[in-house]
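User: dTDP-4-dehydrorhamnose 3,5-epimerase, Neorhizobium petrolearium:
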Amino acid sequence: MSLSRFATTDLPLAGLKLIERQNLGDSRGFLSRMFCAEELAAAGWAKPVAQINLTMTARKGTVRGMHFQHPPHSEMKLVNCIRGAVWDVAVDLRADSSTYLKWHAEELSADNRRSLLIPEGFAHGFQTLTGDCELLYLHSVPYVPGAEGALNSQDAALGINWPLEITEMSERDRRHPYLTEEFTGLTP
Ligand SMILES: Cc1cn([C@H]2C[C@H](O)[C@@H](COP(=O)(O)OP(=O)(O)O[C@H]3O[C@H](C)C(=O)[C@H](O)[C@H]3O)O2)c(=O)[nH]c1=O
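Assistant: Predicted structure for dTDP-4-dehydrorhamnose 3,5-epimerase:
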């Protein structure tokens, strides 16, 4: 049996990866590995896990995001959906990237066991496709409130095509600024 517990797919934004967890099932149920430093180093996860967060979002159609941390607190995120299903979006904010301000989305769900490995320099957000969605985040650096940055998920300059009518968003997320020329991207 292969020791690999993950299938990794390169996505159109350099460094962004789709990680599919393998289930080892038997008559009792299954075992699924959520993280492996050695295997995921090959997919680009180059630091220890600094923090793990769990969020639950009750209402279908809710949007959270688009969040990032400013350098030097830029973070890698491994976003896992362990209950329900979400439309998970990463936006490339790397100032020197050929895909600067481009976004890519994947459907992550407890059933498809897919995760998004998001490199430093990206904003992240999602929309719930079901009720009671739980996301388990692995972060490569601690949460630094003063380093938080965000883009507005509705910004036409990003043009994110959210799949459902938006049913809920935090006031803080509603008020994130729209992009102006002053924003020139993130540099490490
Ligand atoms: C991110 C974070 C937040 N907090 C506190 C700050 C607020 O008092 C409260 C909720 O924070 P926020 O509204 O930013 O949480 P979300 O909007 O769900 O942010 C999450 O969703 C988007 C899509 C993401 O990508 C973030 O990484 C992820 O954490 O938790 C913490 O204490 N630690 C943390 O690591």
